[in-house]
Amino acid sequence: METVDNANALVTTRADVVAGFRWQAEEKARRSNDYSDVADYFEQRAKTIQSVEEVFADPRLRVFFIGACALSAKAAGQLGEQACRDIVTATIDFDRLTDQDYVSNLRSRYFLTCGDALGGTMRNVIGKRAQKILSDYVCDYLNGQNLNPSIVRNTQDKITEIRWANRTLVFDRKPKFIGFNIDLILIKSTHFSKDFLEVPSRILACGELKGGIDPAGADEHWKTAKSALDRIRQSYEAITAPGPALFFVGAAIEVAMAGEIYRDIANNKIAAAANLHHINQMTELTRILTET
C-alpha cells in the first residue's frame, strides 16, 4: 500500500484518541439520560406503589424494578413475565418504599444494572459508527466511479449490504464452512443470498473492522482480528481452495500492533490495512477492496 510505507503510518495519533473519547463521552451521556428519566419516574411514585401488580401494569416501573433486581432486559426476556414477577416480589420490600434511604438504594442498584446495559449498547454503537464510516468511503468511491451503489438497511437502520456492478459487500455474516461471524465479506454477485456464503469461490474478500478507540484495548482487538483472519485463511487451506483477499481496519492502532500489521501487509498475508482516522489510508483500502 502506498499510504502505508512504514509501520508508524498506521499508528493512531493522540489527537484522534482524544476526539474519539470525547465522542464516546457525549454519546454515553446522551444515552444515559433515558436511564435517569426512568429512575426519576420511579422515585416520584415510590411512596404510592403497593404491589407487584402496580409495577407490571406500568412499563416504566417494570423496567426500573427489573433493573433494581439486577436483571438485564435480555435475562428478563428469557425468564418470562411470571418469573420476573416472582423475582421482583422476592427481592423488593414494598413496605419500605416510603423510606427514602431504601428508595435511594434501589436507584443505585438500578443504575448498576444500567451500567452493564449501557456498556453493551455503546459497544454496538461504536461498531455501527465504524461500519458507517467505512460504508461512506465505499459509497463515495463507487459514486466517483459512476457505479451507483445501492444500500440495504435493516429495521435498526444499520447497513447490511452495499451492491454495485457484479459485487455485493455484506456485513456481519457467518459462512458455515468458516464457522464464525465476519465483519465484512465481498461476494461476487449482483445480490446477496445466504447460499452464496457457502460457495468459497464467490467470496472475494473478508475483513475485520474494529472501531474501539481505547488504547488499552487496541492490542486485544488486533489479536481477535488477526485470529479471525488466520482462521479464514486456514478454512480455505483445508478445502484446498484459493483464499479471499483479507483486510483490516482499526480505530485504535498502537506501535507494537502496527509493526505486526505492517509485516502482514509486506508478506501479503493482508491485502490492505488502514487506520479508520487516516483519510488517505481509508481511501486506498476502499479502492483495493472495491476493485477486488
Morphology call: elongated
The number of strands is 7
Class by helix and strand content?
Answer: alpha/beta
As laid out across the biggest beta sheet, the strand order is 1-2-3-4-5-6-7
Q: Percent of residues in helical segments?
A: 40-55%
Largest sheet at a glance?
7 strands, mixed
Which regions contain 5 or more consecutive residues with pLDDT less than 50? none
Overall pLDDT confidence: 92
Percent strand equals: 5-15%
Report how far the terminal alpha carbons are from each other.
14 Å
H/E element sequence? HHHHHHEEEEEHEHEH
Radius of gyration: 24 Å
Q: How many helices?
A: 9
How would the blueprint of this fold be written?
Layout (H helix, E strand, L loop, with lengths): L13 H32 L6 H6 L1 H10 L4 H7 L1 H11 L8 H45 L5 E4 L5 E6 L2 E7 L8 E7 L14 E8 L4 H24 L6 E6 L4 H12 L5 E4 L3 H12 L2
Parallel strand pairs: 5-6, 6-7
Antiparallel strand pairs: 1-2, 2-3, 3-4, 4-5
Description:
This protein is an alpha/beta fold and 292 residues long. Helices cover 54% and strands 14% of the residues. The chain is built from nine helices and seven strands, in the order ααααααβββββαβαβα. It has a seven-stranded mixed beta sheet with strand order 1-2-3-4-5-6-7, with helices on both faces. Helix 1 crosses helix 3 (59-68) and helix 1 packs across helix 6 (100-144). It is elongated and about 70 Å long. The chain starts with 13 loop residues before the first helix and ends with a helix.
